[in-house]
Design brief:
This protein is of the alpha/beta class and about 290 residues long. The chain contains twelve helices and seven strands. It has helices at about 1-10, 15-30, 35-45, 50-80, 80-95, 100-110, 120-135, 155-165, 180-185, 220-245, 245-255, 260-270; strands spanning about 110-115, 140-150, 170-180, 195, 200-205, 260, 275. Helix 8 (about 155-165) packs parallel to helix 9 (about 180-185) and helix 10 packs across helix 11. The longest helix has about 30 residues, at about 50-80.
């Protein structure tokens, strides 16, 4: 039976030969104990080349698999682990989110920063923060720190109107400068709790607009001039109310840029004191 199977191996196709190599080995191991090993070896002498090819192909396949496994090992070793990659990404995200964490910390301490130009973006953020803190505790004071060169009058009016809308007292402090619209925000704080740091400056003036880059018809220019005059009277009225001075005195001071030091701002009445050292809470804030 073994000789017949080996003879069929020679006549089969190449694929059948490769598949039959293991079968040949099994037949040879089976018939050898019966003393027929010599006959099989003689009969299969012509098939030694075929068997050699099978073995050579098996060795080549095993060597390729070994190289592939080595390559996979090298790739795994050279690539950083998944945990390290995720930790690196989380560190970058933490750095990017640092301003957000600081904002949350200050908001938890009921502190709002108004820095840069007074515009709609600043007004929106300030209004949102004021409403949020009002909802958390309508009786606890809210501290606002200002460092701004001014900007849009009506963006400042949105912040000032929110001061009057909420019931929580709003304390204002200037660190750096508060000019133009920012000075109005300073004066709108609760009286007795408006301070200016000793090296800061405050500036008030009348509102202005520019017609250099835009072409207007005569009627449009008249309308804009009337609106500008109305805005000027509004600001003069507010400053007079904040400072306790006569409207004529405020109007005269706002005809041009009036710069004031911290002590001069207190003397003018737009601030109540020069800022002094205050004790901040030492507990950990919940971020």
């Amino acid at each position: 039976m073994g000789v017949t199977q080996v003879h069929c191996l020679r006549k089969s196709s190449i694929t059948d030969r490769l598949l039959s190599c293991t079968m040949f080995g099994r037949v040879l191991r089976t018939i050898t104990p019966l003393g027929l090993g010599v006959a099989v070896a003689t009969r299969v002498a012509g098939d030694q080349r075929t068997v050699g090819r099978c073995e050579a192909r098996g060795k080549s396949n095993s060597s390729k698999k070994g190289e592939a496994s080595k390559a996979e090992t090298i790739d795994v070793s050279t690539n950083p682990p998944t945990k390290e990659t995720s930790s690196t990404t989380s560190d970058k995200d933490l750095v990017k989110s640092a301003p957000d964490l600081m904002y949350k910390y200050l908001l938890n301490e009921r502190v709002i920063l108004l820095t840069g130009r007074v515009d709609e973006k600043m007004a929106t953020q300030a209004v949102q923060s004021l409403l949020y803190l009002e909802g958390r505790d309508p009786k606890a004071p809210i501290q606002i720190y200002i460092s701004s060169g001014g900007g849009s009058v009506f963006s400042a009016m949105a912040i000032v109107d929110m001061f009057d809308h909420i019931t929580a007292p709003v304390h204002t402090s200037v660190f750096g400068h508060a000019e133009s619209a920012a000075a109005i925000i300073l004066g709108a704080g609760e009286k007795g709790h408006r301070c200016v740091s000793k090296h800061s400056r405050v500036m008030i003036h009348q509102p202005f607009t520019s017609y250099t880059a835009v072409k207007f018809q005569d009627r449009d220019m008249i309308v804009r001039a009337e609106e500008l005059s109305r805005t000027r009277r509004l600001l003069e009225t507010l400053v007079a109310d904040y400072t306790g001075r006569k409207l004529s005195e405020v109007s005269e001071a706002m005809k041009h840029n009036t710069y004031m030091t911290a002590s001069e701002a207190v003397q003018f009445g737009i601030a109540d004191s020069v800022c002094s050292r205050t004790k901040r809470p030492t507990g950990k804030a919940n971020l």
